Amino acid sequence: MRSWPAPIIPRLPSDEGRLWLKNTATGRQEATGPTAGQARMYVCGITPYDATHLGHAFTYLTFDLVNRVWRDLGLTVSYTENVTDVDDPLLERATATGADWTALATDQIDLFRTDMTALRIIPPDHYLGVVESIDQVSRLIDRLRAAGVVYQVADPDYPDWYCTNSAPTFGSLSGLEPAAMEQLFAERGGDPDRPGKRHRLDALVWRLARPGEPSWESPWGRGRPGWHVECVALALDTLGPAFDLQGGGEDLIFPHHEMCAAQAFSATGQPLAEVYAHVGLVGLDGEKMSKSRGNLVFVSQLRRQGANPMAIRLALLAHHYRQPWSWTPSDLSDAEARLERWRTAANEGASQSSVATPAAATVAAMRAAVRDDLHADRALALVDAWAAEPGADRAEVVAAIDALLGVAL
Ligand code: ZN
Question: Ligand 1 centre and the CA of 81: distance in Å?
Fold first, then answer.
């Protein structure tokens, strides 16, 4: 699948260090990515409807910071992102609105690309839809079957294929008790009560074709992939096992990432990722932002209303990624005022003030902030202080604002 154009990223003078991220699986901050060579990251992509709301934008911006920190550390990055371009919620939305599901997906993927480009998000190296990856998914199901964890549900009409979460590590990512797992599984697309399953938490890997639903030929019968197996197949195919980082919104910890990890372990005997990082959810005016409440705020809508994409980016960067927060109009107006102050500092003459912090010290402190669990919020405060007394060597700070924070002044 076509991704989107890459922003040009300035190179800063080289500097050693590591990226430290809080690993959801251990609860500890851990060095993430190799010390040299290639870093590998997988971020779960959108199901193409309701793109790109601010929760999506906050997630992809977070992992864009990871990408930028790794590059600044001299690493190359192999980054995979999927598009769940066939799934129940997409088909339900298409049916509800009378749209053709492929047309709905195509429009929403185009909108997502436009939003990501405007926000200066570095595109994935492997941007893959499910529809174009049916063979990869099918091969993974084959491996899982060879490992003895895949079976057909006892249903005379639709004996769909399921995978048992038999990996010894199952549960270690979320740390949830079985009752909590079952509840979240039911809330987030799972089917614990389906008759004929061996275990209530077993996950669908291949759904046989129902009348009127899209389907593809496979050794498992005509049908379409389940959700978790899709991400595992694409991740293993492009990055291999035990890659450096898997990311997504915190609502993906369970069941999605837990079940991805279990399936990958069953197929390869290795963990899927070394570190898992999750992004806090974004609300609106103190309420959870959700489809059912109809209170989603979209990047495209803000752009249509005249918001500068760099101000939208700054508004999101002002919040630490792990902290759930709620969007209010002042997020944008504060960010617009900040962008203006920074631009003035960048473009107008230096104050030559004797109290100005040397540019190199500001850049070093910005690097330290983002390498420490992606504290962009702290980096913004450092740039604010610089913008109040810009001093000489402005270009050095302007390049760091672009390279590390992705904000072009
Ligand atoms: Zn995923």
Answer: 8
The answer on 291 and 183 residing in a single domain is no
* Domain identity same for 261 and 294: no
- What CATH number corresponds to the domain at position 191? 3.40.50.620
Where would I find the beta strands (DSSP E) of 95-212?
126-129, 150-152, 161-163, 203-208
80: cis peptide before it, omega within 30°? no
Distance 260 CA to ligand 1 centre (A): 8
How far is the centre of ligand 1, averaged over its atoms, from the C-alpha of 267 (Å)?
Answer: 17
The CB density around residue 187, as the number of other CB atoms within 10 Å, is 11
Range of the domain at 139: 19-279
With the CA atoms of 115, 116, 117 and 119 taken in that order, what torsion angle do they form, in degrees rounded to the nearest 10? 90
- For 122-179, the pLDDT digits (tens) are 999 999 999 999 999 999 999 999 999 999 999 999 999 999 999 999 999 999 999 9
Same domain? 270 vs 295: no
CA of 331 from ligand 1 middle (Å) equals 29
Total of domains in the chain: 2
